[in-house]
Amino acid sequence: MAFLIDGKKISSQIKDELKTEIAEMKKKGTEVTLAVIQVGNDPASSVYVGNKKKACAYIGIRSLAYELPESTTEMELLTLIDELNNRKDVNGILVQLPVPAHINEKHIIEAIHPLKDVDGFHPRNVGALVTGEDGFVSCTPAGIIQLLKRSNIDIDGKECVVVGRSNIVGKPMAILLLRENATVTICHSHTKDLKEVCKRADILVAAIGKPKFFNRDYIKEGAVVIDVGIHRNEQNKLCGDVDRDDVMDLVSAITPVPGGVGPMTIAMLMYNCVEAVRLQKTER
Ligand SMILES: NC(=O)C1=CN([C@@H]2O[C@H](COP(=O)(O)OP(=O)(O)OC[C@H]3O[C@@H](n4cnc5c(N)ncnc54)[C@H](OP(=O)(O)O)[C@@H]3O)[C@@H](O)[C@H]2O)C=CC1
Ligand SMILES: Nc1nc(=O)c2c([nH]1)NC[C@@H]1CN(c3ccc(C(=O)N[C@@H](CCC(=O)O)C(=O)O)cc3)C=[N+]21
Ligand SMILES: [Mg+2]
């Protein structure tokens, strides 16, 4: 029977470790501050932003919340980012995505100073990830590596299949798995024989954004399945990209939704905020 990977518990452990570390930093006079910017009021974004603020409060990070109207122009947002880039008392800047259609996401990502880009979305941080240099790593894939390591799931030499190639999940996930010495395959909407490719996976990462898409036809017996997708139905019930009931008896371990990858994303954001203080000390 499958082992449920408890992202809630593991994320709590990480947050407690960070809480201790931040208390130590405070004794030495160092404060950690994260600025969170939300443009518009998409309800899902509000939930995630709320969870981020709660985590900050819990571990002792000061959070500055900017709730801007949907009508905010790109120029106004860029002006705020510039102001925060220049503030010595701000360590991390996060602009919740997606931004409204009239704002160019790429311009926003590139405007954030790479040493404050706690999301790890800036091309400089993406480049650093690929070459193995210091920088911020995208929170969701970094959280997945922590989930695997802290559950004693071996990655070295394993066949890992990542389904999805977005800049924030699929691509950095593949690079991190490669860094752990996995054999990595990346699949996407043009992949032929997706079922056959997924069936090779010792570790399958499902990140396509389609509710319950992955059923038992995609799973090798004994595989570890990481479900990144999050979907909310009419009754406000959450599910992932994986049809968990259908695959449960086949897998060796699986992440639930909710309580799997989502809480880890938040924990790694907190980790990156602490990392920001370190990087800013050495590189500024
Ligand atoms: N738990 C968490 O912390 C987080 C969860 N998420 C969730 O993860 C999911 C993915 O997010 P994100 O990466 O931003 O999504 P995107 O929509 O940016 O990317 C989806 C990817 O999946 C591929 N894809 C879509 N349909 C298929 C298909 N039928 N077969 C194979 N590949 C397919 C696309 O291929 P192509 O490139 O060819 O179009 C694309 O590469 C969403 O449900 C999102 O809500 C996201 C971030 C954090
Ligand atoms: N700049 C930016 N950075 C992000 O990191 C970012 C983003 N934009 N846009 C959207 C995605 C999604 N994301 C999640 C964060 C927390 C949960 C989370 O807390 N999930 C809980 C449940 C939350 C709920 O009740 O909906 C769980 O899975 O248990 C999920 C998803 C961060 N993202
Ligand atoms: Mg996306």
UniProtKB/TrEMBL annotation:
One GO MF term attached to the UniProt entry: methenyltetrahydrofolate cyclohydrolase activity
Gene Ontology terms: biological process: L-histidine biosynthetic process; methionine biosynthetic process; purine nucleotide biosynthetic process; tetrahydrofolate interconversion
PROSITE patterns registered for this protein in UniProt: THF_DHG_CYH_2
Family statement drawn from the similarity comment of this UniProt entry: Belongs to the tetrahydrofolate dehydrogenase/cyclohydrolase family.
Pathway: One-carbon metabolism; tetrahydrofolate interconversion
Keyword Acyltransferase applies: no
Subunit structure: Homodimer.
Database matches in Pfam families: THF_DHG_CYH, THF_DHG_CYH_C
Name the UniProt record assigns to this protein: Bifunctional protein FolD
Gene: folD
Catalytic reaction annotation: (6R)-5,10-methenyltetrahydrofolate + H2O = (6R)-10-formyltetrahydrofolate + H(+); (6R)-5,10-methylene-5,6,7,8-tetrahydrofolate + NADP(+) = (6R)-5,10-methenyltetrahydrofolate + NADPH
Residues in coiled coil: none
Tetrahydrofolate dehydrogenase/cyclohydrolase catalytic domain span: 5-119
Its EC number(s): 1.5.1.5, 3.5.4.9
Entry binding sites for NADP(+): G164, R165, S166, I230
Domain Tetrahydrofolate dehydrogenase/cyclohydrolase NAD(P)-binding: 138-280
Keywords: Amino-acid biosynthesis, Histidine biosynthesis, Hydrolase, Methionine biosynthesis, Multifunctional enzyme, NADP, One-carbon metabolism, Oxidoreductase, Purine biosynthesis
NCBIfam families: PRK10792.1, PRK14186.1
GO cellular component labels: cytosol
Job of this protein: Catalyzes the oxidation of 5,10-methylenetetrahydrofolate to 5,10-methenyltetrahydrofolate and then the hydrolysis of 5,10-methenyltetrahydrofolate to 10-formyltetrahydrofolate.
Species of provenance: Coprococcus catus
